[in-house]
Amino acid sequence: MRLQHSKKAQTLIIMLLLTSLCITAMGYAVYRIATDTLVQEVQSAYHVSLQRTQDRVQNYFKQIDQSVLQFEKLPALESLIMPGEEENNLEILKLLETMLRMQTSMDDVDNIALYRISNKKLYSTNHQVTAFQEDYREAIAKFEQTDKNYSFFNLTVKETPTTVYIRKLPIFQGSRTLYIIIHLNQQFFDHILGSSNETKGNYFILDENNQLLQNRGVMDTTRLMAYVVPEILHERRPSSDKLFTAYLPPSYNGWIFGFATPNEELFTKINSIRNVTFILAAVLLILAVLVTIFSTNRLWRGWKDIVSLLDEPSTGSGAVSSTKKTAHRADEFQHIYGKMQRIKETRDELKEQVKELTPEIREAFIRNMLQKGLRSQEDVDKCERYQIELLSGGYSCFCVEIDQYKSMSGIYSEIDLYYFLYGLSLVIQEVIAGKGKGVVTGHGEGRFLALLSLDDAEASLDTYKDSIHEAARTIRDFIEQYFPFTVSIGISLLRKDYAYLSLSSQEAEDALKHKLVTGTNEIIPIEEFRREESDSGASALPVSFRELENDVIYAVRSLNPELAYRYIDRLGELQGLRTISYQWLQSQLTEMVFSIHRTIGSTLRKPPTEPLMGELMQLATLEEWIAWLKANTVDKLYADLQQEHLEHMLKVAQQLTAYIHEHNEEDLRPEGCCKALNVPTSIGKQALKEVHDTTFSDFLLHSRIEKAKSWLVHSEMSIEDISSRLHYSNAQNFSRTFKKAVGMPPGQYRKDAREHLKT
């Protein structure tokens, strides 16, 4: 028999061959092999189910951690973080309001409390604070003994199961003076594991101390601890053949997710068909031997071709595939061979494209970093990912520009100019590496932006400046000596906070604007052109207007008006300084206002109306300026950005929900859906949360449940077919999920819905 047309014929031959091999082992061996195979398949299925359960738990606690991080940024929390600071009742109320919003935004949370270590006082969203403080005393004492940053406890307080999650605050500081306590109700584990009357077998969780954290099922805790848990901890098969177990290795917080069920529930059907199998075995053996004789050679020759394809390099394989496909077009294995060859070639091409794009992505990140600064932990993580090392002593930006670059285009070819620019970038990078750490990137025709950071071992500010100026002189002198052109170099002020990288790079560019005065082939520090500010007393000011402008722009773009208010309030530190000229101060504030409006307005589809100069001239005191900036700059720009943000979130949510409804029969992931819509994954998740107050997995579950309802009412599909099409591991998991969402099993829903339609 030749395997040329039907895949069903191939499957039949393999089944017959496997049956013949089983028969040679005789009787009981057939049963044992079949049983082991079933155990492996069931284990694989339950591993998938447990993995989903584990992912839900991890995602849940990630959601909690993200909410805690946002909570930690509240200005009202600062007074509680500092030991010895007096408590402000208004700020406490703000904290409690935020904690209550956090509680309502998270499922299965009964209470959120904030515990201050210094005075051992508890602030809770529940009004019975004193009673709850007594309830949490045991959990707090146990947490302090662990010496961990966060822990999860499942205790019994006053004969009531109590589940709490405790984390130290602030998260990213060495001294932590607060605990945040999140009290979960018992429905949390019901939603994760299912209720006891819904499961066949037992779903359970072991905590980091290998104790039984939760158990759902018919078997009691004593039996699990006696037979199942010891075998899991020693990673060997259960000593009792009456039990089947499946579990995942320790994951979040050292937890182990597992499942156990009696073997008789798994092997009922196989025991009933075992005797029938023995009767048919002899007939199948004879048929398998005859078919195998004719098919084995053809079968293994095809697999040998596929293996050789995967083992050999992909170069030049296209011509070989084309020749073989023409000669054996009717051969099914040859068809598979051609497909796998194309897949392998595509994979190799993608790998090469990724290698080529990585330097470009890194270059784009460097440019973005120099234009926007490093403010978030995500930006710092990207620096580590792209192997960009920055030192903490201090930094300054260079802007290196080739003098008379445009006139060089008439003298040299494009290739010569390319090598000149490439050589200049290498010189800048080598000088930076000799002084400290940093990066360099192209910034227009004949111009480069560079960042040089120095180690904190340097002695003083003057030493930092000398090192930076020496690096600039080295670049200039080397280029003048070995290249057919000269360069001018603008140098920014020295700073330590990388949040102001954008300000430093702008200062380096602004310094080059003074080439008309200083001439070419010069080093131009921006500080030399700030004498007017120094004469007005600006050098002694506690507030830098450029940095303040940068901070306000960042806060407004981050949709955080409270943070912008705090930055603007720093203007109050200028009160009482008699060395300031009012005309100079008014000019600085006016320039800052227009710069903020133009910078943020450039990112809006509809630019905002700029303030009138006459309106600004009427402001006579710092209090009036501060109030005007908050009301007419921060609030208006925030409202415009917020409106565009809401419109964008609504549009993304509509696209994403429509895509989910259309493709809910596929194995959907947030990354894949957002990629298909050309939307960042984080934006897609945020849109679902803000518009529909749900997560991707919950919305996908809702969409699939609605489709399952339609199939149950309007089709004759079996529950097994529905569960398979909706990507459930088995019908049992689908039925459990459907009942939890709808309130009744799918079979009962089909019956009730059809009876309702008849009436």
From TrEMBL:
Name the UniProt record assigns to this protein: Helix-turn-helix domain-containing protein
Organism, scientific name: Paenibacillus radicis
Xref: InterPro entries: CdaR_GGDEF, GGDEF_dom, Homeodomain-like_sf, HTH_AraC
Residue ranges annotated for the GGDEF domain, each copy included: 393-528
Domain HTH araC/xylS-type: 654-752
Bilayer-crossing regions: 12-31, 276-294
Domain of life: Bacteria
SUPFAM superfamilies in alphabetical order: Homeodomain-like
Keywords: DNA-binding, Membrane, Transcription, Transcription regulation, Transmembrane, Transmembrane helix
